[in-house]
Amino acid sequence: MESFLATAKASSSIVSTLSGAQKNRILKEMAAALRTNLTVLLDANRHDMAAAESNKLASSLKDRLFLDESRIEAMAKAIEEIAGLKEPVGRVLDGWYADAGFKIEKVSVPIGVIGVIYESRPNVTADVGALCFKSGNIAILKGGKEAEHSNQAIAKVLQSVLIANGLPKEVIALLPDSSREGVTSLIKQDAYVDLIVPRGGEALIKYVCANATVPVVKHDKGLCHTYIDRDADLKKALSIAVNAKCRRTGICGAMETLLVDGVIANEILPVLKQAYDAQ
After folding, report:
1. Confidence (pLDDT) at 171
2. d(CA 200, CA 219)
3. Which residues of 58-94 are buried (b: 16+ CB within 10 A; e: fewer)?
4. Amino acid 110: pLDDT
5. CB 120 within 8 A of CB 65
6. 93 phi and psi, to 5 degrees?
7. Angle formed by the axes of helices 20-36 and 38-54, to 10°?
8. Residue 250 has what pLDDT?
9. pTM, to two decimals
10. Which stretches of the chain score pLDDT less than 50?
C-alpha cells in the first residue's frame, strides 16, 4: 500500500504542471478510448451483472451497476464535457498590494492525491478520474466490490491513454487492496494522501469520518425533494415529478419526497398517482 501511494504521490508533481491544453487533449483521448473499448467494457460488466444475479442484489442496485452502449457513450461524453470546462489550475482568485509595495495573489493549485471511495456505479470511475486529472490531481479510486470487473476495465482504458502520453498509470488508479482493511489503511495514509472523498451511504460516511487521519470532504444525507406550488404549470410539474422519480429510481439523485401545495393537492395528486401507476 505505502509503495503504491508513494509512487502516486511522486506522480502528482508531473500532473500538476501539465498545461490545460495537454490535459484537455488527453481527456479527449480517454473519451475516444472508452468508445474504442466498448466490447471490453461490456464483457467486464457482464461478469459483474452475473455476480449481482447470483448474489440477489436489489433491482435498484443492479440498475446502478448495469452498463450498455448508451451508458458507456454517456461516460465518454461526460469526459469530453470535463475537458471543455474552464481550466481550474492557476486561476487568480484574489490579489492585493502589501504596504511594502509588492503584490500578493491567491492562486488555485491542485490538492495532490485524492482518495475517492464510492459504491455500485462504475461510471464514477471515469467521472472522478477525469475530474481529478482535469484539476491536476491524482485519483486513487475505491469502488464497490459489486462493480470490480467493470471498474478494473474502465481504469485500464484510462491508464492506457496515460501511458501512451508518457504519464504514470498511478495518476488514475484503483486502490490495490479493495478490502475493508485496505480502506482503513488508505484513510490513515496522511503522509501520501491529501484528501479523502467518501461517496456512499450513511454508514460509509460515518466510518470514514470516525477513522480517517487524512482530511475528509463528505456529503450528508440526501435531500431530494420536489415541490409543486399552487402557481406552477401543472402539466410541466407533472412531467418533472414523474421524471424526478422514475427516470432512474436506483440513483442517489432520485426524488425522495414530493411536496404539494395544499391548495392544489386534490387536483394534482390523483393525476400524479395515475402517472406513477403507469410507469
Report:
1. 97
2. 9
3. eeebbebbbbeeeebeebbebbeebbeeeebbeeeee
4. 97
5. yes
6. -90, -25
7. 70
8. 72
9. 0.84
10. none
Measured between alpha carbons, how far is 190 from 212 in angstroms, rounded to an integer? 9
Count CA atoms closer than 13 A to 21's CA, side-chain side. 0
Q: What is the pLDDT of residue 248?
A: 80
Q: How many CA atoms lie within 13 A of 215 on its CB side?
A: 7
For 201, the grid coordinates are 451511504
Would you state the pLDDT for residue 147?
94
Query: What are the DSSP calls for the chain, one per residue?
Result: -HHHHHHHHHHHHHHTT--HHHHHHHHHHHHHHHHHTHHHHHHHHHHHHHHHHHTT--HHHHHHH---HHHHHHHHHHHHHHHTSPP-TT-EEEEEE-TTS-EEEEE-----EEEEE--S-THHHHHHHHHHHHTT-EEEEE--GGGHHHHHHHHHHHHHHHHHTT--GGGEEE-S--SHHHHHHHTT-TTT--EEEE-S-HHHHHHHHHH-SS-B----S---EEEE-TTS-HHHHHHHHHHHHHS-TTSTTS--EEEE-TTTHHHHHHHHHHHHHT-
CATH 3.40.605.10 fits 2-94+104-211, yes or no: yes
Q: The dihedral of CA 135, 141, 144, 145: what is its sign?
A: positive
- CA 83 to CA 26: how far, in whole Å? 9
119: its cell numbers: 459504491
Contacts 24+ apart (CB under 8 A), 267-273: 267/234, 268/228, 268/234, 268/237, 268/238, 271/234, 271/238, 272/238, 272/241, 272/242
> Domain ranges in the chain?
2-94+104-211, 225-277
Cell, residue 169: 498509470
> What is the model's pLDDT at position 216?
96
The three cell numbers of residue 10 are 511522486
